[in-house]
Amino acid sequence: MDQLRIVVGFKVTPDYEALRPADWARAGDDAADGPEASPGGRPGGPETRFVRRILGVFDEAALELALRLRDARAERGLQTSLAAFSVAGRVADSFLKTLLALGYERAARVEAGAALDFAPGATAALVAGGAQRLGGDVLLLGSRCGPGDSGVVPFLVAEALGRPCLTQVTEIAPADRGRLRVTFTADAGPVRAIVSTPCVLAVGNAVVSMLRVPTLKDRLATREQPVVAFSAADLGVDVTEELDREPAALVGLETIDRGRAGVIVGGATPADKARALYETHLRARLERL
Q1: In what order do the strands lie in the sheet with 79-87?
Q2: 138, 199, 247, 260: most buried, per Cβ within 10 A?
Q3: What pLDDT does 186 receive?
Q4: Rounded to whole angstroms, how far apart are CA atoms 68 and 256?
């Protein structure tokens, strides 16, 4: 098989590291006010409208691995088509436009119409539907991404598609007869396997984790290429029904205080500070040695 169709599913998330303490305080207020108080109807969710959106490290690695696999196959004279999609709203369009500039032939977003954090079953149903619509031989996903991700989405997607799934994938290379040489991490260490398609590959701590940057020329050449939008109904997925099937529901979020305790050592001069440090904190410890 000379032609290989690769589809990559990725997630766009807020940069939670950039949130202020006040944004997390808002989460506690929203949880007290009820499930509809938070942005997007997420109970207890922090305010994320004013922070940038980012790709998860595993999703970014999956997108780059697909490009590298395409390049490696091209050196052998083999054709590869690339498609990418995200279960998101218009916030994903800038990322999808970047992928078009990098050589992805098709880019699509799947609009769920609901917040899907902590809802792996509903997310998997939409991802499986998007993969079927784009029709790939290989589906690449990040092994996990975003808050509350349990890591089960790739397995649920593989089950829905009826495909085998390898997780913690770190490298992908072409093999003979259209198969792939896949390196993944197991309990005993790295494992290399020859994989036939169709399959689902969940990318973990890949050696290559950064997505390449398109040139301005490439962006201008692809600026007219459209981003296709699918609704859940287009994919035959009832999001409300899928959410009702979830075994757990989010009731609140709170930040973890990672601050360290500290003491300010007083003194008018450096010598005074050193003396105070010795007398107050070091002398007793040194005497115990």
Answers
A1: 189-195, 180-186, 165-174, 199-203, 138-142, 3-10, 79-87, 106-111, 228-231
A2: 138
A3: 87
A4: 38
CB neighbours of residue 4 within 10 Å: 21
Query: Which class is 3-245 in CATH?
Result: alpha beta
What are the start-end ranges of the E strands in the chain? 3-10, 12-14, 53-55, 79-87, 106-111, 138-142, 165-174, 180-186, 189-195, 199-203, 228-231
pLDDT tens per residue, range 128-185: 999 999 998 999 999 988 766 778 999 999 999 999 999 999 999 998 887 999 999 9
pTM of the model: 0.80
With CA atoms as reference, report the closest residue to 138 among 176, 96, 181, 97. 181
Residue extent(s) of CATH 3.40.50.620 domains in the chain: 3-245
* Cβ–Cβ under 8 Å, residues 239 and 126: yes
Number of alpha carbons in the 13 Å side-chain half-sphere of residue 65: 35
DSSP annotation of 279: I
pLDDT reading at 37 higher than 70: no
DSSP one-letter code for 5: E
User: Residue 203 CB: number of other CB atoms within 10 A?
Assistant: 31
Backbone angles phi, psi at 142, to 5 degrees: -70, 145
